[in-house]
Design goal:
heterodimer; A: 432 residues; alpha/beta; Rossmann fold; GMP Synthetase, Chain A, domain 3; 9-stranded mixed sheet; 4-stranded antiparallel sheet; 23 strands; globular; B: 143 residues; alpha+beta; VC0802-like; 2 domains; 7 strands; 41% strand; binds zinc ion
């Protein structure tokens, strides 16, 4: 099922041609209308005419959240305020907020992207979409809302909060699709259980969850407790909001809508683009945005480009589920290590997500990495041989994934200190 | 025939075994047999107790990783070659023995040995056919 089969399944050569045309136009618009971009390009000795192929993207300087902050509030806009029809803003939990603007056409494109995303996630015009993303400056609520209306589904603009009322409305209105953050979906499941309502009594059949990183474990739990099928949606306000990428029914990575965005994954330290399969920082370039074009925007989200085609037929590049922030990255013996890489190995071998901790230390001039894994009931065996096997497999898999020698230690449950229920993932004992 | 054995994961550091025995004692649970298999990093404590279900709950609530497995108790005649004939029967039938350990006390007719095998039902069948004395679970818990 597609919303826009032509563009979602464009043959790769045609897609690349379209991307190049749109990239050139974006670069030109940014250069001539946004002082920040003009200065940044000129500092590299670049002019719009230097972009002749998609590979030339790599010549362009990155754009960071700090660039947006320094141009607070409207300095990055590429159109006069009279063309702006909507303003959103990120929460700004760390420093100044960032402000994003939309022209009428941007809002139109966003609605199109969200309609595609909803259909990709399993929605049809016959669905009743229970939209529990927050409405307001945050892009989640209105993003889903416009997409749902574009699709022709019935949208309930319930926003967040008052969960008991949410459950009541879900039951009485016959909501079929839930859109919210994955943690709020779990909260709804809990409240439903407290209220003694069996999800089987509801018409809910699918959920489209995003705006925060979540795991396969969480997906399984949400699917089981709400009796639905759950997919992951990705977006960020600086780029447009939700609708940049979404999982299809194959649930094997998120499709980027390639006619509107270019995706790269880079090594956050060397800033070199990484090949498919390697984890790094997602960098996005908008191809059609008028009000706020973003060029090589450093998202700080950790993912990997996925190789191979998806059976669903969409041709946009796929990214892996976002598993963390680049701020969590460790550099051990010159190798970039993301705690989420360890997590994915444990998940693969253990089946469930055990509690773990990375202990980084330095012996002489050499960094050491120890991975402590709590032996849960599902990992445990009464035979020494099996536990040694487990230790051995974890050791091999971690070393090959991280490209680093690792000591694996199996520890008793509750050994790893938790604060407010969350385990501290990394202890870095090195003194620099 | 099938005896419930508790297995507990322990880190190789002092005081962990004592923590288990203290916890069980506080719940009034008696240990009938015990063995520790360890490596340089960790150990597995195996226990036969008078009330396996209660011990399982107590250890789980106490934050230990614990599992219940079924094992066999075999009564060995007190004469040379008693154990080896039992092992030979199993070997001939192609049944792998994961591990075995001796019981603290004695049975009516000789030493008691706990056997953990891969295919429990088949082992029971073979040993019964060969006339080996298998000890009833209730008897072991009450010893
Ligand atoms: Zn797909």
């Amino acid at each position: 099922m597609y919303w826009n089969q032509k563009y979602e399944c464009l043959p790769p050569e045609e897609l690349h041609q379209l991307q190049l045309e749109r990239l050139k136009a974006t670069v030109e618009r940014a250069f001539f209308n946004v002082p920040h971009y003009r200065r940044a390009f000129q500092a590299e000795g670049l002019e719009p005419g230097d972009i002749r192929s998609l590979d030339d993207l790599r010549k362009l300087p990155f754009t960071t959240k700090d660039d947006l902050r320094e141009n607070y509030p409207f300095g990055m806009f590429a159109v006069p305020m009279s063309e702006i029809v909507r303003i959103h803003s990120s929460s700004g939990t760390t420093g100044k907020p960032t402000v994003v603007g939309y022209t009428r056409r941007d809002i139109d494109v966003w609605a199109e992207l969200m309609a595609r995303a909803l259909v990709c996630g399993g929605a049809t015009r016959n669905d009743i979409i229970h939209n529990a993303y927050g409405y307001g400056l945050f892009t989640g609520g209105l993003g889903v809302h416009y997409g749902a209306e574009r699709l022709g589904a019935s949208v309930i603009p319930i926003s967040g909060g008052n969960t008991k009322r949410q459950v009541m409305i879900m039951r009485d209105f016959g909501s079929t699709i839930l859109t919210c953050t994955p943690s709020y979906a779990l909260h709804i499941a809990e409240v439903m259980e407290e209220m003694g309502i069996d999800p089987a009594e509801l018409k809910l059949r699918a959920g489209i969850f995003g705006a925060e990183p979540w795991s396969e474990n969480m997906r399984r739990e949400i699917e089981r407790r709400l009796g639905i099928s759950a997919v992951d949606i990705y977006g960020l306000s600086e780029v447009i909001g939700p609708g940049v990428a979404i999982e299809c029914q194959e649930k094997n990575g998120l499709h980027i809508f390639g006619d509107h965005f270019l995706a790269e994954v880079i090594d956050p330290v060397t800033e070199k683009p990484l090949p498919p399969g390697e984890m790094g920082e997602l960098v996005l370039t908008s191809l059609t945005k008028e009000a706020l074009p973003v060029i090589r925007y450093r998202t700080r989200d950790v993912t990997a480009l996925l190789p191979g085609d998806c059976p669903c037929g969409r041709t946009g590049v796929r990214i892996a589920r976002i598993t963390g922030r680049t701020d969590d990255m460790l550099i051990i013996r010159g190798v970039n290590v993301f705690p989420s890489q360890v997590e994915s190995v444990l998940l693969e071998i253990g089946g469930t997500e055990p509690h773990y901790q990375l202990i980084v230390d330095r012996e002489g001039s050499l960094d050491t990495l120890e991975v402590q894994v709590e032996v849960s009931e599902s990992l445990f065996s009464d035979a020494v041989r099996r536990l040694e096997d487990l230790e051995h497999r974890l050791h091999q898999e971690l070393e090959s994934t991280l490209g680093l020698s690792v000591k694996v230690t199996l520890v008793e449950p509750k050994t790893i200190v938790r604060s407010e229920g969350k385990a501290k993932r990394v202890i870095d004992k090195r003194k620099f | 025939m099938k005896i419930k054995q508790l297995s507990v994961f322990l880190e190789n550091k002092s005081g962990r075994l004592a923590a288990v025995t203290r916890l069980l004692a506080s719940k009034g649970i008696n240990i009938r047999a015990l063995s520790i298999a360890d490596t340089s990093d960790f150990g597995i404590l195996r226990l036969i107790v008078n009330d396996p279900e209660a011990a399982y709950r107590a250890l789980k609530e106490g934050g230990f990783t614990v599992s219940l497995t079924e094992v066999l108790g075999v009564e060995m005649p007190d004469r040379p070659g008693g154990l080896s004939s039992v092992l030979t029967h199993l070997e001939e039938a192609g049944i792998n023995i994961e591990y075995l350990y001796a019981f603290l006390g004695k049975g009516e007719n000789g030493a008691l040995v706990i056997l953990r095998v891969e295919d429990l039902d088949k082992a029971i069948e073979i040993l019964s056919a060969k006339g080996v004395q298998l000890v009833k679970a209730e008897k072991v818990y009450a010893l």
